[in-house]
Amino acid sequence: MKLFRILITIGGLLLFWGAVTKIAELPKFILPSPLIVLMALIENAGLIAENALTTAVEIILGLVFGITFGMMSALAISAYHPVRQWVFPVLIASQAIPVFAVAPLLVLWLGYGIAPKVVMGTLIIYFPVTVGFLDGLNRTETAWLNLAGLLQQSHQRSRFANIYTLYRYIKIPFALPSLASGIRVAAAIAPIGAIVGEWVGSSSGLGFLMLHANARVQTDLMFASLLVLSLMAITLYYLVDHALRYILPWQPDKDTPAPS
Amino acid sequence: MEPDNRFPPSSPEPSTGEPRNQAGTRIGLQLRLNQLIFDRELIVGDLDLSLVGGEITCLLGPSGVGKSSILKILAGFIPLPPESWIECSDGRPVTGRISYMDQHDLLLPWATVLENIVIGGRLRGESPDLARARELLHRVGLENWEGARPATLSGGMRQRVALARTLMDDSPIVLMDEPFSALDAITRFRLQGLAADLLKDKTVLLITHDPMEALRLGHTIHVLSGHPVTLSLPYSPDGPIPRDPADDALRHYYSEIMASLALATADTP
Known about the structure:
The complex is a heterodimer. Chain A is mostly helical. In chain A, 80% of the residues lie in helices and 0% in strands. Chain A is elongated and about 80 Å long. Chain A binds chain B through residues 141, 143-144, 146-157, 159, 161-162, 164-166, 169-170, 173, 176, 248, 250, 252, 256, 259-260, and chain B through 1-2, 13, 15, 17-18, 20, 72, 75-77, 95-96, 98-100, 102, 104-106, 108-111, 119-120, 122-125, 149, 151, 169.
């Protein structure tokens, strides 16, 4: 039923698009009809696939690095007070700098390869992951922290060992649903970094291909690339979403109110 | 985790890897509380409470009277106010010898029933005593549920798991904050019986607002009233725990306690 609705929606949009190009008699370099785009897609399948692979690698590497650094930062900020006092404000302030403005610098420093795109993606993904995870870590129920503190009361262990097990068995599991929200946002915005990076300077990738096609008024090829990029982004989001649901089956979605 | 100001810096406890478990020892507890102030408001002023070793002491009072504050001070969740002290009958610190059971089960939603019971050991970095955990599960009647997640259990079952977790460390002192208040009447009745059986020989402080529960489980019952809160003289009904609430002998206590509670409620703003 859900699939049916999606198909209807897509079909309707395609029909509308086709009708507009037909009725307005737009030249194909302004707005190509869906059929022309489809033909461009088939004709240039090899070229598009090659460039899509570059972009996909950039997106996935950005996601991996962004999530890893984001999680590590959140843990450090949450567990170590000086980091929260000194580093966190800097982190917040850094978000005032638009990542797009940094893109030319990254290309200047790191060249035209995939490195600056991966860094762009990492920068974009890092923040939502950090904030989401940190929020979860800071929101462990007081009742649970009290109980855990009581259970840990013993004379032998170091403070560090207690903090480690507290995070390992209580704080991190409690924060995983928040981390998952952060990762979902990250998955949705991950392609932006790669594409912007490719626009600023690159020799392959879907962003590069679109820019190239645009300059040669190959609007149909542009649309075909855009279509592939959208499909990649949507697929990525659903894969991540499903994986997270699978990993966190106990995640309190809305039904169970947390103890106070 | 927090500075332990409960004891004068007498002995930093030269720990020799002594086990937490001290089954069999009955430890009495004495709390002397001098003015607990919260938000510039005097919650508890000048209060002496003693728990008899191996017995259940009930604090009975209307909601919002500050019953939980007293328990939280004993548990160390609220720092001990100045000029107050806690003393064990054996003269050793209370630290590490307390178990706590909350009104909410506080089970970890991602962990199985068995893992929830051994969480204390995990948090202390020990390898958990699974045999003991299974034995406790058997005693609370959930031996077939060790692999279940808490969300699949009923409220009563979850509280039984919480009871097993509370007993896991075999601490001589057990603090319980309205542990059965969220359950229906029958489940509560059964759990009270189970708890009375399992808490034998423990020094227990049980907070409740239910006079029946207090009469059923308490060796000693104090009614809390007033603002700031004061303790009534102890009521000590006879008979073994758990008592039968239909018992004629309890009727007299029941009406006395109800009268005292009614007064207490009238005092409370």
